[in-house]
Amino acid sequence: MILEKIIEVSNILDEIDDFESSISSEMSNYNYKLSDLYHYVENNTMDTKKCYRLCRELKKVLEERRQFKNNVELFHEYKNNIQKLNNGKENRQLLLSAIGKRSKQLNQPYKNRVYAEEELKEIMEG
Questions:
Q1: Are the CB atoms for 70 and 108 separated by under 8 Å?
Q2: Cα separation of 21 and 11, whole Å?
Q3: Which among 43, 42, 104, 40 has a CA at the least distance from the CA of 70?
Q4: What pLDDT sits at residue 126?
Q5: Is the CA virtual torsion 29, 30, 31, 34 positive or negative?
Q6: pLDDT the model gives residue 85
Q7: What contacts 57, CB < 8 A, 6 or more positions away?
Q8: Which pLDDT tens digit goes with each residue over 91-109?
Q9: Per residue, what are the HEC states of 45-57?
Q10: Which residues, at least 6 apart from 40, have a Cβ–Cβ distance to it below 8 Å?
Q11: What percent of the chain has pLDDT over 70?
Q12: What is the DSSP letter of 82?
């Protein structure tokens, strides 16, 4: 019983280490995808149907990238508190609390930096 649990924990930690080693290449991949889409918009004339399809793809990539970036942020919170993992139940609860707090912060609605909400609505309505 305990051997299986130790093996399970070891496998999970291996998965977390693999995630860490993939961060840079995954982030680059998302940035390249976005760059390809941005350049396509810049360099091509598109009808309504093509614009819709491109926007749909852009939205998909942006949502995937946001999920990945949130996972990276949670991973960094985990790394900052990793010493709590082996220091008893109470400390593990502190680790989970810190990660939960960071997760809640990451799920806050986006606040525009340049465009006012009214400006964006006006652009969309033409």
A1: no
A2: 15
A3: 104
A4: 79
A5: positive
A6: 86
A7: 37
A8: 999 999 999 999 999 989 9
A9: CCCHHHHHHHHHH
A10: 54
A11: 100
A12: G
Amino acid of residue 120? L
CA distances from 92 to 17, 85, 96 (A): 19, 5, 6
- Tokens 């149907």 correspond to 49
Rg of the chain (C-alpha set):
21
The token pair at 50 is 């093509």
Token pair 């995630």 is found at 19
Instruction: Retrieve residue 18's tokens.
Output: 């693999």
Q: The whole model's pTM is what?
A: 0.86
Alpha carbon 50 to chain centroid distance? Answer: 27
- Identity (one letter) of the amino acid at 68? F
